Amino acid sequence: MDAIILQILNGLDKGSAYALIALGLTLIFGTLGVVNFAHGALFMIGAFCAVTLSRLIESSRTVIDESRTDFLGNPMEVQVPYVVDWFGESGGAFLIDWAVPLSILFAIPIMITIGWIMERGLIKHFYKRPHADQILVTFGLAIVLQEIIKYFYGANPIPTPAPSAFQGSFDFGVLLGFDPLTILYPYWRLVYFAFAALIIGGVFAFLQFTTFGMVVRAGMADRETVGLLGINIDRRFTIMFGIAAAVAGLAGVMYTPINPPNYHMGMDFLVLSFVVVVVGGMGSLPGAVLAGFLLGILESFASMREVIDLIPGINQVIIYLVAILILLTRPRGLMGRKGVMEE
Amino acid sequence: MTDQTQSAPAQRPAATSPDTRRRGATLGLAPRDLGLFLFVAGLTLCAPFLLNPFPADSSLAQFNAGYPDLMQRFVIFGIFAIGFNILFGLTGYLSFGHAAFLGVGSYAGVWMFKLIGMDVLPAIAASVITAGLFSVVIGYVSLRRSGIYFSILTLAFAQMCFALAYSVLTPITGGETGLQLSLSDPRILGAAASASGNIPVPSLFGVEMRETTDLRLGAWSFSLNVGYYFCAAVMLVAFYLAIRLFRSPFGMMLRAVKSNQQRLYYTGLNARPYTLGAFVISGMYAGLAGGLMVSMDPLAGAERMQWTASGEVVLMTILGGAGTLIGPVLGAGVIKYFENIFSKLNDSVLHGWFAFLPDGLENFVVAIVHPFVGKGWHLTLGLMFMAVVIFLPGGLVEGGQRLSRLFRRKSGPETRSTNDTPAE
Amino acid sequence: MGLLEVKDVNKRFGGLQALGDVNLSVAENTVHAIIGPNGAGKSTLLNCLVGKLIPDTGSVMFAGQSVLGRKPFEINQMGISRVFQTPEIFGDLTVFENMMIPLFAKRDGAFRMHAFEAVTDEADLIDEAERMLAEVNMLEKRDFHAGSLSRGDKRRLEMAMCLIQRPKLLLLDEPTAGMARADTNNTIDLLKEIKSKRDITMCIIEHDMHVVFSLADRITVLAQGTPLVEDTPENIKGHPKVKEAYLGEAA
Questions:
Q1: What are the φ and ψ backbone dihedral angles of C81, each rounded to 5 degrees?
Q2: Domain C1-79+167-251 belongs to what topology?
Q3: Which residue, A88, A282, B31, C58, has most beta carbons within 10 Å?
Q4: Where is this region: Disordered (chain B) (predicted)?
């Protein structure tokens, strides 16, 4: 029992990342009808926003501390972050510690801008082109974005720790009446899940309860008719693209403490996120979220020792296997609508 | 260089145009296709010379591409792309998992070297057959869907193959280190070890693939390699078969699948076996490429099956011109050239080139060029790819056609319009 | 016994009864028109004939064999060809290739792996394709891309593609929909010419009374998924039930 709960918890953080990326993918697909292979790159850029901000915050000047000497007997050189100069010792330390969560504020405008540039500069010219062309051009864009990041940040993963307050693990077992230390769950993953739930809830609420969201939903259902009503769909869809980019970016920002970001993390997540979208049903938002969590949890169950002993290698292929089965038995995915992407 | 598969036919108001009648067909090819075939044959035969245009000791020698290893890759990836084009170019089904067949073919080839002997023919036969069997299974399942769903299904299958080869199937695939030959392999029809006690090398009827004759003519140096010429011969056969397929009723049906499946069904034709046929043929081409790859260097690794490798062949085909005969070969050549030559350029080479500029300007130019060469060549590749999809959906072949049209228009004002659309 | 026999066909979509007890008999070598106001179930009926939809109950027999449960390409191989409301042709292929594909389908069946033969070797089929193109006055457009043709030419090409298979039954789904009067008249002439030159049975779904009365030997009037009357054009013209169906319940 405790093992099962542990696996569900383990699946949640990966599932959250899948769900957030898939949500943006399916949002773009549902509104703009574009298959965006560069969406993983947005996730990656988000992660590097966090890296950039923590580097900016840590940028420092060198002062010579006459009172101390290094091992050669020379006066010691000490790095003093500028934030310490500006906000004092404790304020500066706090900012450095909290760099990742603070990156959210930094990442939102950047991601929306990038999304806006992408949509206006490239994607909008591909609305009428075949899906194959969309896949290919966004695939090219993904390569370019990832190479740019590689150029500036190098090829190695960059560790970006969570605030010290969230380091360590939470003992879930005690809470549920099991023995202590049976179900340990890192705090940050808990934060990630809560954050994902918040974002997903926010996107749904936005689409459900605002006029803007209503128009977008109507546009997803029947673009032409809404266009005929004299509503400028295109402009709203551009904003939707920016929002989708921001969602992917934030998913990336918060993921950095879980997995040190590298330049190809976007591609790694993209393939799985596409599988998630297809399993959930192309163009279905609840489907994407459901499938994201489902596949994340399924993956962590398949990684259990007992399961691997039973079927070797199942943890590597479970997601693809499920995707193939679902595509063949339920062509529209779990919650797909009729007529989306069908011949 | 141009071919007519994708482009609109030139204006031919004649009632019975000669091109569709069998007339003077040699090797079963129409004169135009024969010309194309002979052109490619000439290029591949002379490649060791054409690709080494710079004297061996000159500063431009790094642009020489005439060394065996690279030339082999040109033709092997040419085969891979020709095969991919049979599926994507004709039927429009975009597979994102074709590298899996290349990988499967590679493993099958190495196993033949391990079990049977070092002759390349059984290895290549095994590669093609194994890849064919895999593509029957994967194609049968994947082709039940079309469009993006097909792409995702093929991607999922390929990633599955990759993940399995990398982990559980390590006894068969060698896992992370890859599948290698060893002295303890049985090799029932050949020697377990060479005369000098080393692992034997792949050969064709006793002629080793790595055998190379270096030819020095003045300052120039050319290497003639057995392995390259073997691959080139195989590629020419593959290319010839592809031309025949493009011009066959089967090829026409595949283009019809891409054009209008509904009409095809209501014309009494079942699209499914046609697309499966194309999928399997193109999978076998990929297997052939994999078999040749291990025949040149008997080592197979799982990374060959990763989806980025599948993306690479998509890239080659699109870059050259999907649906055209020569396009994939061109695309494979260009991308492999970029990969090998451009990725070798470094700052000191760049400084050498731009030394004629004033110092400040020199550093500036080098700084600008730097991100695009050396380790950054993928960036150039990505940009090129985007540019091609945006501005030249027909690839380099279409670019060539546009250029030649432009040229013709300038030279002769009487050929005003090459557009075949009648005025309505 | 007609060439096409539709017996007691019912089809429901959710709560909507699209077809209710449809009985229809199309005699060999006649032009049979099915008319009716919008939403009468004409298209549903047609889709049941070609295998796109399967009726809930009833039977559809063609030349003594049931078509139910067969795929569209199998039904075509039985001898039924279909012309669509908007011409469906192979736009990326040349006019000539558009003609060759139905010829191959007729000769080789639903699938044949003729991957290493040349299209240009099929002298007989090429001649046949060119004869047919000449008959519909399209020979000079032989090497044009079919997608670049005018709408009228596309329609003629599509009919030629159907006719070259020598179908026993040609189904036409509103062949003049969206056409100007002049084009409509051309199409009527073309169909008359086709009919006069060969033994063929046609079943036309049509909206336009002018077309129907110029061509049809017999007319079935469909309203709300059920056949109202079936008779000759002369008798249909003044039939009170038909007027009622067309002018609505107000009459």
A1: -110, 155
A2: Rossmann fold (3.40.50)
A3: A282
A4: 1-23
